[in-house]
Design goal:
With about 425 residues, this protein is mainly beta. Helices cover about 5% and strands about 35% of the residues. It contains two helices and 29 strands.
């Protein structure tokens, strides 16, 4: 059943007609709309039952793990095992009555399951598509980002980057992790810590979200926030790599070039079509606008004091995904995923809560050409949310298995999905 909460009129909500979603390098940006609260469309969760998400012709999807405890991100290990980070973090207090109202309503569209604070390992021992699960490590603190480098398994908890020793085929951690470096964790309005390793394994990149929508807690609370850190994998020494990224929720390295890319969740409360969440190459030393401006030099008038010099230096992102899609996963594809989806990235879109016409709730494929995004996104996994508002799943992390599969974490139904191209003579699932 669809729950529609409209704060127009009495609460001076955002109004106006909904504009088309904006995709690509030059999205059309409407004027900002201000109000006490936006129209909120929250779907009541429902069970999958016998239904499955929708995938393109020539592909099949199966649930390889269910009953998890808020799966967020996954990592395919060299032997084909899959690690799943499960957790739910954050401890930010509400600032205003509207935050209490919005928080309560948004929670209705999320899983009520308590986060596992663990890593679960999935193994297809018989090679028949049936995965067994074991707990690889527990007693973690809202783990999210994962990376494997030279026999070291790195996990980005909400408060620290930690390291486990890893041996091929290992099903359980041999001991507690070693802390590589502490991560900003006070308040944790945006608690997720995305993670990727450089192509040579020397550095780790950590995405750290802001502590507010647009600095409502003051700039002191934003120290070391809204940026990507570069961390020396051995020593833990770190520095800002790029700044002005409101919430860089997932990171990935482009094959062949070694370029770092991110999906970023932009700011709220200036209308259903502002500001587009985006996919971008992350430039070392680059500034991407938050909080002073968005999509380059579009000034956010709510922020005081302003900083014209920072606005002038703000880099436009590479590719708009559309407003409020809540992109939480990204990974580059390969030829094993089929010719149509060989060159580009998959993006997991968790879905909006603040649009009268919901956006996201799917996995899209953004095609690339000559190393850059090229063309509109293509729905790759959809059907998480029905036209009547019934919602059975919300995709988060996406990981491409080099053997030819896309792994999708769904933190509403607490499921891991596996999508593969059909081979000749293979029946659909």
């Amino acid at each position: 059943m669809l729950t529609v909460v409209t704060f127009s009129g009495m609460l001076a909500a955002c109004g106006g007609e909904t504009q088309p979603l904006q995709y690509g390098a030059a999205p059309e940006l409407p004027p900002p709309e201000r109000g006490f609260l936006p129209d909120m469309v929250i779907a009541k969760p429902a069970e999958w039952g016998e239904q499955l998400p929708t995938v393109p012709d020539g592909y099949t999807i199966s649930a390889i793990a269910t009953g998890l405890k808020i799966p967020r991100q996954t990592l395919v290990l060299p032997n084909g095992d899959i690690l799943v980070a499960e957790g739910k973090g954050g401890s930010a207090p509400s600032l205003k009555p509207k935050d209490v109202i919005a928080g309560y309503i948004k929670a209705q569209g999320n899983s009520p399951v308590q986060g596992g604070d663990r890593l679960t390992l999935l193994r297809d021992a018989q090679g028949d598509g049936v995965y067994e699960s074991t707990v690889f490590a527990d007693n973690l603190n809202a783990p999210y980002g994962l990376a494997l480098v030279d026999g070291n398994l790195y996990v980005a908890n909400q408060d620290a980057l930690v390291r486990f020793d890893y041996q091929p085929g290992q099903t359980k951690a041999s001991g507690p992790p070693e802390t590589v470096t502490a991560l900003p964790s006070e308040i944790n309005h945006h608690w997720t810590k995305a993670l990727a390793a450089s192509a040579d394994g020397e550095y780790l990149y950590v995405g750290i979200g802001s502590n507010s929508n647009i600095t409502e807690r003051g700039m002191t609370a934003e120290a070391d926030r809204a940026m990507v850190w570069r961390v020396n994998a051995r020593s833990g020494e770190h520095k800002p790599y790029a700044t002005g990224l409101r919430n860089p929720t997932a990171l990935t390295i482009q094959p062949d070039t070694g370029q770092l890319w991110s999906v970023v969740n932009e700011r709220d409360e200036i209308g259903p079509n502002l500001v587009p969440d985006y996919l971008t190459a992350v430039q070392e030393g680059g500034f991407y606008g938050w909080p002073y401006s968005y999509w380059g030099q579009n000034v956010d008038e709510r922020v005081r004091p302003q900083d014209p010099d920072k606005v002038a230096s703000a880099i436009k992102p590479d590719y708009s995904l559309g407003a409020h899609v809540a992109a939480l996963g990204v990974d580059f594809s390969n030829e094993a995923m089929g010719a149509q989806f060989a060159d580009g990235v998959f993006v997991g879109e968790h879905g909006s809560w603040n649009r009268p016409e919901p956006s996201g709730y799917k996995v899209v494929f953004v095609p690339f050409s000559d190393g850059r995004p090229a063309g509109p996104p293509v729905d790759f996994v959809s059907g998480f949310r029905d036209s009547d508002g019934t919602t059975r799943g919300r995709p988060v992390g996406v990981t491409v298995d080099p053997a030819g599969a896309l792994i999708v974490a769904d933190d509403l139904s607490n499921t891991i999905w596996r999508i593969t191209p059909l081979t000749a003579g293979q029946p659909p699932a």
